[in-house]
Design goal:
Order of helices and strands: EHEHEHEHEEHHEHEE
Structural class: alpha/beta
CATH topology of the largest domain: Rossmann fold
Radius of gyration: 19 Å
CATH architecture of the largest domain: 3-Layer(aba) Sandwich
Helix content: 25-40%
CATH superfamily of the largest domain: Formyl transferase, N-terminal domain
Number of helices: 7
Distance between the termini: 51 Å
Number of domains: 2
Strand order of the largest sheet: 2-1-3-4-5-6
Largest sheet: 6 strands, mixed
Length: about 230
């Protein structure tokens, strides 16, 4: 990680997915920092985020709750560091981290702060914040993850901005990042599955903001809606 220069404000690019309460807390927290000049990009569906940020060279690019993949060319252009906040533990890089953890009945969960690299969720891990999972449903797990991620953000980002050295951890990613295609396959349910597996999967995947679970029978497919 390069040394910071204190003679001028640092140019910081923050990329968030939606202008919702979780992201607003991050935006407002950074705006209060007198050492930085903040530029916020709210990436919407089909937005060409790389085209929007490639015109300027930043000291930091921070991705927070954003699924958009930043091109390697832009990452290499950053002066100091490219940091992503992943709402899952190193065990679950990529898409579907909440769902896989619930399906596997994990007793602990976590959030990860890492450097961005060419591959998704594969850069050096800077910090992991773990917490216990106790009879959590999907919505509660997501909310608890966002809460812990913001606490980690508040704790770690001021240190980086103030040029306090942060060592990478010895923790490594558990595997290659799960893709959207893999997650879509995970959403599929068929009648060959045991009833307890179907129920377990439904408990792990249903959320109004996520794609609906799909039951397949022969060549027919049915989306599942709660009642």
């Amino acid at each position: 990680m390069a040394n910071l220069t204190q003679s001028k404000k640092l140019d910081v690019c923050l990329i968030v997915k939606k202008h919702k309460k979780h992201n607003l807390k991050v935006i407002n927290f950074l705006r209060r920092n007198k050492k930085i000049k903040l530029e916020v990009f709210i990436a919407k569906i089909n937005s060409k985020i790389n085209n929007r940020i490639k015109k300027k060279k930043y000291d930091f690019i921070i991705s927070y709750l954003s699924p958009w993949i930043i091109s390697e060319r832009i990452l290499k252009n950053t002066r100091i560091a490219n940091i992503n906040f992943h709402p899952g533990p190193p065990k679950y890089p990529g898409v579907g981290c909440f769902n896989y953890a619930l399906y596997n009945k994990d007793k602990t969960y976590g959030v990860t702060m890492h450097e961005m690299s060419k591959q998704v969720d594969a850069g050096k891990i800077l910090k992991v914040k773990n917490f216990k999972v106790s009879n959590y449903g999907l919505i509660k797990l997501i909310d608890k993850s966002y809460e812990n991620m913001f606490e980690m953000f508040k704790s770690e980002m001021p240190k980086i901005i103030s040029n306090q050295r942060i060592q990478t951890t010895k923790v490594r990613w558990g595997k290659k990042a799960n893709t959207q295609k893999q997650f879509n396959n995970f959403l599929k349910i068929n009648f060959k599955m045991k009833p307890e597996i179907i129920v377990r999967k439904l408990d792990a995947i249903y959320h109004s903001n996520f794609p609906d679970p799909v039951i397949e029978y022969g060549k027919r497919k049915f989306k599942i809606k709660p009642i």
